[in-house]
Amino acid sequence: MSVFSRAAWRQIAQAVIIAVVIAVAPEMAVSPAAANPAAAKPAPTDVQSLLKTRGLSVSAPIYIRVFKEESELEVWKARPDGRYAPIKTYPICKWSGTLGPKKALGDQMAPEGFYGFGSDGLKPDSKYHLAFNVGYPNALDRALGRTGDFIMIHGQCVSVGCFAMTNDLMDEIYALARDAIDGGMARVPVHIFPFRMTAENMKRHADHPARHTWAPLKEAYDDFARTQEPPRIGVCGSRYVVNPITALDMNAKDACPARIGKLLAPLSPKAARKLAFISTPLFAEGPKTRTLDNIANWSDAEARATMLDIANREADSARRKKAAANNAGDRGGLTPYLDLQ
User: Fold this and answer.
1) I need a surface site. Which of 83, 95, 173, 313 has the fewest CB within 10 A?
2) Does residue 312 surpass a pLDDT of 90?
3) From the CB of residue 269, how many other CB atoms can be counted at a distance below 10 Å?
């Protein structure tokens, strides 16, 4: 006859299982990236085929440009000679605000300016499918007293202040950024423009109240057209400096040096012809919810409606998670293994 009662055996079994769970829990921990299979998806086959055709590495550096009025995001990739070739243009499903820089937390504006992110900016565990943090506020934003944070490019086509893609397109963009960072790129530049800064568009917006903030963006846009190299950006005197000869490692509010200079390596006519031959990007299909009229006449009412939609989505997601947890509890969790009767 056993010296232990059935109740005692039950307590011993429970203690053993709890000890095992505690012991193996660290080994069972799942990283955010592993928890979201979308974060591990490779670049799509059309992009891989284009890269192979153009002799570009999947792990080569990338450059991202965002154009608010056109609701488009471009991904460019470095060639072996350091010049960049366009890879794919993606429609931005939704963004909030109008043209002009973001200035304050809660203004529902999407930023304009020069930003970027590294490995810590990738957000595989985002509640908006996948995301990366563009890096707002940057040094100039802080010097100018602009507030707000956590401005993302993410999925789910819903946004207040961010740039939202459809999930399938976010998968692609995330894969391109992840592969570049895994290949050794320390920081992916993300340059956000109010629109494609052609002479025609500049003339059309000549009376816009934000026009005084656009000179460095226009300069960077034109420099990239001449060089096909991502513009290098410095900050001094509470302003941007585009493609300075030397890096401006100073506080953004410090006075600029008396002589800054500009360093560019324009394409030769021969190189320009060669790059033009391979400069047709792929174009992704997808929705754009913003229109020229909608952008020009944007109001807080639209932002409030979007915020209500986000709150409803999050509440629904919380209800589904709670229901799933309750269902798991109803199935007994570890209880079946403890039933010794």
Assistant:
1) 313
2) no
3) 8
Segment 252-263 shows an average pLDDT of 93
Number of C-beta neighbours around residue 90 at 10 A: 26
Share of the chain above pLDDT 90, in %: 68
* Predicted local confidence at residue 182, as pLDDT: 97
In single-letter form, the type of residue at position 252 comes to A
| Residue 10 forms part of a structural domain | no
Determine the structural domain holding residue 188 and report its residue range.
41-225+268-298
Q: Which two tokens stand for residue 194?
A: 């109010």
51-76 confidence digits (pLDDT tens) = 999 999 999 999 999 999 999 999 99
Residue 140 inside a domain? The answer is: yes
pLDDT tens readout for residues 133-178: 999 999 999 999 999 999 999 999 998 899 999 999 999 999 999 9
Cα gap 198→204, rounded to integer Å? 10
Residue 141 lies in a domain: yes
Burial state string for 122-158 with b = 16 or more CB within 10 A and e = fewer than 16: bbbebebbbbbbbbbbbbbbebeebebeebbbbbbbb
Tell me if 117 is assigned to some domain. Answer: yes
Q: Which is it for the CA torsion 33, 34, 35, 41, positive or negative?
A: positive
Q: Is the pLDDT of residue 45 over 80?
A: yes
Please name which of 189, 166, 167 lies closest in space to residue 177, comparing C-alpha atoms: 189
Catalytic residue ranges:
154, 162
Q: What percent of the chain has pLDDT over 70?
A: 80
Q: What is the domain-level CATH number for residue 188?
A: 2.40.440.10
Distance CA 152, CA 91 (A): 16
Helix, strand, coil percentages for the chain (3-state, nearest 5)? 40, 15, 45
Residue 67 to residue 135: CA distance in whole angstroms: 17
DSSP assignments along 86-121, one per residue: EEEEEE--EE-S-SS---STTS-PPP-EEEEE-GGG
User: Which distant-in-sequence residues (6+ apart) come within 8 Å of 151 by Cβ?
Assistant: 102, 110, 111, 133, 134, 135, 136, 161, 162
Number of domains in the chain: 1
Cα(276)–Cα(290) distance, integer angstroms: 30
